[in-house]
């Protein structure tokens, strides 16, 4: 090099269980920018990496789902702080991955950081929105509270390598789920770098596990995996055949499935999952739009408790 | 002191090849000379050998065979202060029928409990072919008078234990009183009657590989039917290296005396991958004769669930999860 310094190439690695392993298979694949120029090599994960990621996610689930919502919010906000510190790196990676100009890439990264802050705020508020006291015809105090579904496999969007990625990961973990994320196959580098941010943000290891590689190769065993509780098919949006196959496999242990077409722009003023708006193909999804809460509520289970209050009228005294 | 032949069947074989061993146990001095005369262990070589055997790739039909073999070799163990008769019965039911969703899965070799639970286990396992193993001799520390230890063994045998897992007196062993350890094993063996005796060395407390080799020979000379690595109650339990060392000992012992002795690694083996590595060690060191639950056991509890999940994966093609096996 002209200044006499050797360039330091970065080895991109997976993020599984809080560690940065190479793929168990030892494989890597070439990642290029939008014009075909070489950017780096990413690990090409195998189904065994996927299996290991599920084990890590399951192990992390107890602690993460049991943490207070406030604490989860603090940690997610910390992620946003760490992202802010690495802003330049992400701007460069997003510009390369998506062929954007510096300024457009910067806008995308800013939106992604803001998205993270937005979801951090939701952690201790979603309970009030989708849970609460139910009026019942009997002497019961009846309460519904949302609980996380469990281990969620997330197929990250193929096109939006960073804003889209953040928009699918943050809502899953905000509510206390743990995630196994399959990064965009052609643009995995921002996702792998996000792993480095998550590792330094107080996020317990295993809460988010990031795999790069061929989407179908990883998604099929994960969709049929008996220890995965839900699957977000966003990243299979461009391949209806694959999405169908995955949904069929997911039915086997009654996984919750978020269909790719469910990614939609919420109607004006809409907050909840209700609303009769048109689904739109995910590849055209506008990730910069207001995301609404439907990605938060997609991976929640409602727990309802009936607490006896004693016979009506018997509780008060007559004097 | 004359060697008491542990059983009539065994003494014949003993006389042929192992006449010299009677001298070895004649006195404390002779026993020490014999044990310290054993070749020293090349620790680096041993660990390298164990590590290299751990890299074998066992797939498809071989893996299916290995998983079933490993299940059939498990001493399904519960050794907790909180053991209840209900827990022992549940464990016994699991030993007889490990995977309720797949009746083709083999039974485990035995259920391993404390002596006071042996009767419960024996009742629950009656007629199933699964053996009752009971720890005894003031397990796990072994710090009690010989009379107390022998009474412990008698209790377990009377309650129906088919196998007795005894601990050696590590304090005596480490202070060089080998004959005391030897005589204690002899005395316990005499109490066992028809029950097979497993001698636990607690390798994690023996400090060196040389000591593990000496303990192995001491146990075999005293009439152990099995030599077992550890109690599962200390920080370091069964490792591939110390199990390899014990497998070499039983192999050499059979070459010299014609008597075959079993090996049982216990504690710390939790995954199918680990278990299969141990089976590779057995096959490559002691040989195929030991690939049978009469001669090789795993002391484990959570290992069974992992083996069952792997078994389900092989039969269905889908990765299984902890929701599909019992919570022990």
UniProtKB/TrEMBL annotation, chain A:
<dbReference type="Pfam" id="PF00171">
    <property type="entry name" value="Aldedh"/>
</dbReference>
<feature type="compositionally biased region" description="Basic and acidic residues">
    <location>
        <begin position="267"/>
        <end position="287"/>
    </location>
</feature>
<dbReference type="InterPro" id="IPR016162">
    <property type="entry name" value="Ald_DH_N"/>
</dbReference>
<feature type="domain" description="Aldehyde dehydrogenase">
    <location>
        <begin position="25"/>
        <end position="257"/>
    </location>
</feature>
<dbReference type="InterPro" id="IPR016161">
    <property type="entry name" value="Ald_DH/histidinol_DH"/>
</dbReference>
<feature type="region of interest" description="Disordered">
    <location>
        <begin position="254"/>
        <end position="294"/>
    </location>
</feature>
<dbReference type="InterPro" id="IPR015590">
    <property type="entry name" value="Aldehyde_DH_dom"/>
</dbReference>
<keyword id="KW-0560">Oxidoreductase</keyword>
<protein>
    <submittedName>
        <fullName>Acyl-CoA reductase-like NAD-dependent aldehyde dehydrogenase</fullName>
    </submittedName>
</protein>
TrEMBL record, chain B:
<dbReference type="Pfam" id="PF01791">
    <property type="entry name" value="DeoC"/>
</dbReference>
<comment type="pathway">
    <text>Carbohydrate degradation; 2-deoxy-D-ribose 1-phosphate degradation; D-glyceraldehyde 3-phosphate and acetaldehyde from 2-deoxy-alpha-D-ribose 1-phosphate: step 2/2.</text>
</comment>
<dbReference type="InterPro" id="IPR013785">
    <property type="entry name" value="Aldolase_TIM"/>
</dbReference>
<protein>
    <recommendedName>
        <fullName>Deoxyribose-phosphate aldolase</fullName>
        <ecNumber>4.1.2.4</ecNumber>
    </recommendedName>
</protein>
<keyword id="KW-0456">Lyase</keyword>
<dbReference type="GO" id="GO:0004139">
    <property type="term" value="F:deoxyribose-phosphate aldolase activity"/>
</dbReference>
<comment type="similarity">
    <text>Belongs to the DeoC/FbaB aldolase family. DeoC type 2 subfamily.</text>
</comment>
<dbReference type="InterPro" id="IPR011343">
    <property type="entry name" value="DeoC"/>
</dbReference>
<dbReference type="InterPro" id="IPR002915">
    <property type="entry name" value="DeoC/FbaB/LacD_aldolase"/>
</dbReference>
<keyword id="KW-0704">Schiff base</keyword>
């Amino acid at each position: 090099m002209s200044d006499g310094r050797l360039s330091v190439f970065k080895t991109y690695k997976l993020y599984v269980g809080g560690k940065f392993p190479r793929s168990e298979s030892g494989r890597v694949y070439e990642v290029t920018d939008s014009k075909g120029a070489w950017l780096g090599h990413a690990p090409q994960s195998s189904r065994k990496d996927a299996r290991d990621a599920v084990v890590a996610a399951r192990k992390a689930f107890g602690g993460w789902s049991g943490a207070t919502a406030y604490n989860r919010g603090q940690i997610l906000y910390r992620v946003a702080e760490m992202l802010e510190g690495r802003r330049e790196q992400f701007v460069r990676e997003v510009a390369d991955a998506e062929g954007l100009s510096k300024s457009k890439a910067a806008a995308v990264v800013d939106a992604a950081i803001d998205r993270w802050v937005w979801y951090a705020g939701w952690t201790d508020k979603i309970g009030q929105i989708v849970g609460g006291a139910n009026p019942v015809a009997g002497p019961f105090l009846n309460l519904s509270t949302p609980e996380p579904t469990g281990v969620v496999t997330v197929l990250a969007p193929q096109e939006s390598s960073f804003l889209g990625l953040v928009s699918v990961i943050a809502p899953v973990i905000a509510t206390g789920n743990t995630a196994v994320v399959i990064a965009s196959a052609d643009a995995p580098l921002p996702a792998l770098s996000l792993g480095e941010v998550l590792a330094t943000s107080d996020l317990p290891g295993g809460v988010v596990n990031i795999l790069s590689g061929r989407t179908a190769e990883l998604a099929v065993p994960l969709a049929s995996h008996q220890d995965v509780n839900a699957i977000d098919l966003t990243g299979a949006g461009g391949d209806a055949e694959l999405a169908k196959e995955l949904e069929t496999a997911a039915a086997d242990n009654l996984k919750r499935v978020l269909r790719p077409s469910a990614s939609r722009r919420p109607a004006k003023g809409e907050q909840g999952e209700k609303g009769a708006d048109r689904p739109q193909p995910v590849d055209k999804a506008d990730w910069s739009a207001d995301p609404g809460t439907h990605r938060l509520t997609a991976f929640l289970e409602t727990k309802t408790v009936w607490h006896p209050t004693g016979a009506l009228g018997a509780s008060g005294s007559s004097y | 002191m004359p060697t008491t032949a542990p059983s009539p069947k065994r003494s014949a074989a003993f006389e042929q090849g192992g006449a010299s061993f009677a001298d070895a146990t004649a006195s404390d001095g002779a026993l020490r000379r014999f044990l310290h005369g054993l070749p020293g262990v090349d620790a680096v070589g041993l660990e390298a050998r164990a590590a290299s055997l751990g890299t074998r790739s066992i797939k498809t039909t071989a893996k299916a065979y290995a998983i079933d073999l490993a299940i059939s070799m498990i001493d399904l163990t519960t050794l907790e202060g909180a053991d209840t008769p209900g827990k022992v019965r549940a464990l016994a039911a699991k030993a007889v029928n490990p995977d309720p969703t797949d009746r083709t899965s083999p039974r485990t070799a035995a259920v391993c409990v404390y002596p006071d639970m042996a009767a419960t286990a024996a009742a629950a396992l009656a007629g199933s072919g699964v053996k009752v193993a009971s720890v005894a001799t003031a397990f796990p520390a072994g710090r009690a008078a010989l009379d107390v230890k022998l009474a412990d063994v008698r209790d377990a045998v009377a309650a129906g234990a088919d196998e007795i897992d005894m601990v050696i007196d590590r304090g005596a062993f480490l202070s060089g009183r080998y004959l005391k350890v030897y005589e204690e094993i002899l005395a316990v063996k005499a109490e066992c009657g028809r029950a097979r005796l497993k001698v636990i060395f607690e390798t994690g407390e023996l400090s060196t590989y040389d000591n593990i080799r000496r303990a192995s020979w001491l146990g075999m000379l005293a009439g152990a039917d099995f030599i077992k690595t550890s109690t599962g109650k200390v920080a370091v339990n069964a490792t591939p290296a110390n199990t390899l060392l014990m497998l070499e000992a039983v192999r050499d012992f059979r070459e010299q005396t014609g008597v075959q002795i079993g090996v049982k690694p216990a504690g710390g083996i939790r995954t199918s991958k680990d278990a299969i590595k141990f089976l590779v060690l057995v096959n490559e060191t002691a040989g195929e004769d030991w690939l049978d639950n009469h001669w090789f056991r795993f002391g484990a509890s959570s290992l069974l669930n992992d083996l069952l999940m792997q078994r389900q994966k092989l039969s269905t093609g889908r990765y299984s999860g902890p929701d599909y096996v019992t919570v022990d």
